[in-house]
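debug: dumping io for the single-chain case to check the tokenizer round-trip. Nothing else runs in this session.
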Amino acid sequence: MRICPLGDRLEVVEDGGGAYWTRCTCGHVLAPAAENWREFAGQAVAQPGEIGLRMNVHASMEVRRYACPGCGRLHAVDLCRKDAPDPHDIRLALA
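debug: decoded output
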């Protein structure tokens, strides 16, 4: 059962046993809803030219892309320090 959206193509759902999950709208379950979905998504580091022709990224930074392993839909693009953990921008308080 759908509980709430997380952006335009991710959602929180509840299974029949009372567990909450983050799911792509294609139906692929990415992660337990209390965890960072990015850690379970397909991930690739983009070269600056792949993002924009005039994009300059400091040598200490990288552009990370996160996609659904089921359908390939791109869910997030983040600029992060190299070797930093994946951003965790949504933390849910689930009862």
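debug: round-trip ok. The chain has one helix and seven strands.
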